[in-house]
Amino acid sequence: MKNLNTQLNNLKNIKPGNDYKNKNRELLLTQIYNTAEAKPADFSFGFSAYFQQFSSDFVDLIAQPAMVVGLVLVSILGGGLFGATASKGTKPGDSLYVAKRISEKTQLALTFGEKEKVQLRIGFAGNRVEEIEQVLADNKQNEAETKKTVDDLVNNVKSEVGAAKTGLQKISKNANINAKVTEKNIETVEQASTTKTAQTKNEEDEVFSANLGKENAGISTKEREVVVVKKEEDSKALLTQAKESLKSDDVAQTLSALEKVDEAIDKTVDSGEVKGVEETATTTELKK
Amino acid sequence: MNSGIKDKILFRKLEKKDKDAFVKAYDYYFDDIYRFVYFKVGEKETAEDLTSSVFLKTWDFILNNSISDYKTLRALFYKIARTTIIDYYRKKSTQMEEAVDTFDYLDIKDEGQDLESKIDTKMDYAQVIEKIGELKDEYREILILRFVNELSVSEIADILEKEAGNVRVTIHRALNALKDLMK
Predict the structure, then answer these.
(1) Nearest residue to A255 via CA among A160, A157, A186, A154
(2) Is residue B59 part of a domain?
(3) Which of A35, A171, A192, A232 is the residue whose CA sits 20 to 30 A from B79?
(4) What values do phi and psi take at A164, rounded to 5?
(5) Which one, of B85, B36, B150, B110, lies nearest residue A14 by Cα?
(6) CB of A135 closer than 8 Å to CB of A91
(7) Closest to A136 (Cα-Cα) out of A229, A239, A220, A238
(8) pLDDT score, position A278
(9) Reduced to 3 DSSP states, what percent helix, strand and coil does chain A have, rounded to the nearest 5?
(10) Domain coordinates of chain A in residue numbers?
């Protein structure tokens, strides 16, 4: 049957003679140019004629469904890529900041695998920490606004770190590597960190109260900012450490680093509040 | 360029009665339409006359009608070719007596073959042409459309105004009939 198909296909070689074809072409050309209305722009030349021809061909070409789908995809992906790059160094309040957050969300949605997601979340937490630094360094907003922005960012860091921790727990469960021991470790780490955070808070509250009692005894604004920035740097270093630990599949180490980030960020909030808004302490405490 | 895309571009231009597009369509489809007509009528001269007539009729049709109802330009050419042949037979009122008058058009290009196998191949082609001429018109038409001019089943269904399943069955039967004739 296959041979028969080939033999049939070879009948393609049957073609009209060239003489006849060419003569007929000329005849047809004469007929159609005589019967049809004259084309108004037949003799036009130059840029406009070229552009007209090009645009009509181009429109015809892009009118194809495949081309339309292709162009839409290119503009979405290209636009996304451009947007993501342009919005990279933005901070809250900037016009492209929304694009940055959307691109992060998209990245997360398009990432499969718990480990990769945890890595992304740690990275995003790092971004928020950087933004806190930028917001504090940039004194364009008034204090109340700055505080609100920083609070939002801190909450975001916490939620990212929380999600990363949940992811890590999932990884350790799935990997089934000393599952029980790891969980116990997590509990111990969590308990330890909670106690430590509580202790740190108490100590800081004491210092804070003590400072309030003295005139000019509180840390000057600049100094406070230095403290905050320093703590942000601590958080950043800890996040990097968590990332490194995750790379070497050390779940317990990553978790412990993340716990430290939590602590560091708590301290940041407390130090930030020395800026003079007393109620914030209570609010932040309540949020926890 | 993909033949489907080329067809669509030409089709769009012809919807606007573009003469240059029709000349391009002539260059693009002339051989296929000629071959289709040739196997339907079995005579070189008649095939030439009818093919010329098909292109003039198509241009006339495009000028005076909207072609938007047709799926492809190729389908439009084949449909007009079929009606032209039907009209020709109505006028002539005789059926094709001789299958194919000659196979001199066959161009066997494989120079590496020895003379004996060349003759064998030519004999094979001659046999296919002869036997295809003995098939009933419906079978011959569908084999040419599918295996020589390489139209898809859905395109053939559109041209013949039949269901795709029906077309597949006819193709299968036509191939078996040709196979039986060649035994």
Answers:
(1) A186
(2) yes
(3) A35
(4) -65, -40
(5) B36
(6) yes
(7) A229
(8) 39
(9) 80, 0, 20
(10) 91-211+218-269
ipTM over 0.90: no
User: Which of the residue ranges A23-32, A156-165, A265-274, B146-155 has the most confident prediction, judged by mean pLDDT?
Assistant: B146-155
Mutation for testing the A interface, residue in B107, B147, B172, B183 having most A CBs under 10 Å: B147
CB contacts of B182 in chain A (<8 Å) are 4
* Contact residues on chain B for A57, CB-CB shorter than 8 A: 9
pLDDT band at A114 (very low <50, low <70, confident <90, very high): confident
pLDDT band at A200 (very low <50, low <70, confident <90, very high): very low
Domain count, chain B: 1
Which pLDDT does position B34 carry in this prediction?
94
Biggest distance spanned by C-alpha atoms of chain B: 55
Of A68 and A185, more confident:
A68
Q: Give residue B12's domain range.
A: 1-98
From CA A168, how far away is CA A95, in angstroms rounded? 34
Secondary element (H or E) of residue A67 = helix A65-86
* A60–B128 CB contact, under 8 Å: no
* CA-wise closest residue to A267 among A182, A209, A190, A199: A199
**B129 part of a folded domain:** no
Structure tokens at A178: 């000393």
Q: Is residue B146 part of a domain?
A: no
Best CA proximity match to A36, nearest among B2, B164, B16, B100: B16
**Chain B residues close to A21, C-beta within 8 Å:** 30
Measure A18 CA to nearest chain B CA, in Å.
10
Per-residue confidence (pLDDT) for residue B65, from 0 to 100: 84
pTM: 0.45
Sign, CA torsion B158/B160/B163/B165: negative
* Three-class HEC string of chain B: CCHHHHHHHHHHHHHCCCHHHHHHHHHHHHHHHHHHHHHHHCCHHHHHHHHHHHHHHHHHHHHHCCCCCCCCHHHHHHHHHHHHHHHHHHHHCCCCCCCCCCCCCCCCCCCCCCHHHHHHHHHHHHHHHHHHHHCCHHHHHHHHHHHHCCCCHHHHHHHHCCCHHHHHHHHHHHHHHHHHHCC
When pLDDT is cut at 50, 70 and 90, the band that residue A153 belongs to is: confident
Q: How far apart are the first and last CA of chain B?
A: 41
- The per-residue pLDDT for range B133-156, each reduced to its tens digit, is 889 999 999 999 999 999 999 999
Tell me what pLDDT residue A84 has: 60
